Amino acid sequence: MTAAASEVHHPFFARFWSVFVAHEAKAVKALRRENLAGLSGRVLEVGAGTGANFAYYPESVEQVVAVEPEPRLAAIARDAASGAAIPVAVTAETVEAFSDGEQFDAVVCSLVLCSVHDQDAVLRRLHSLLRPGGELRYLEHVASAGGRGRFQRLVDATFWPRMLGNCHTHRDTERAIIGAGFEVAEARREWTLPVWAPLPVSELALGRARKAA
């Protein structure tokens, strides 16, 4: 993400992501649902994309404010919001610029922290937007070890971020979450494709982190 919504334009990625999410694997859908389970109150979703999460929010959520600065994706997310079972408001602001004057009960990040330009700054901003005791729920591409990790570093340095909306596959996202002041309460790794699949984004981290009360 960048400082102004007008600077966030990834037309190729927006088209690709719309098709990809429409055919998303059942394993990823299940992880999305698990990531949102038990949420309540006001929720900020960062990088909402096409609104793929909206159908999985529990009825205990009072409102979702969904930030999506890519205009093509934001338009699709607004259509998804209109059919959601809970109130969803989609804004085209970046999270760096976003503020509605109140803190949130939870923040949700799904496959977005890999693509922000300054991950540390974004996570610190999310920490400030949470009420004390609030939760960060995350489902994120993360750095793998061994040969896949070397492959991730290679694609990150060449074509992958340019083609896929600034996605960087070899980020130590959980270290950054802790560095921003969160306390990780639960975390695990999941493979959504076979280990041998030649893709750098097969391994996901699913976790819950808290802002100290």
TrEMBL record:
GO MF terms held by the record: S-adenosylmethionine-dependent methyltransferase activity
UniProt record, GO biological process: methylation
Keywords: Methyltransferase, Transferase
Methyltransferase type domain ranges (all copies): 44-136
Record flagged with keyword Zinc: no
Family annotation (Gene3D superfamilies): Vaccinia Virus protein VP39
Any Pfam family hit: Methyltransf_11
InterPro entries: Methyltransf_11, SAM-dependent_MTases_sf, Thiol_S-MT
Protein name per its UniProtKB record: SAM-dependent methyltransferase
Organism: Mycobacterium intermedium
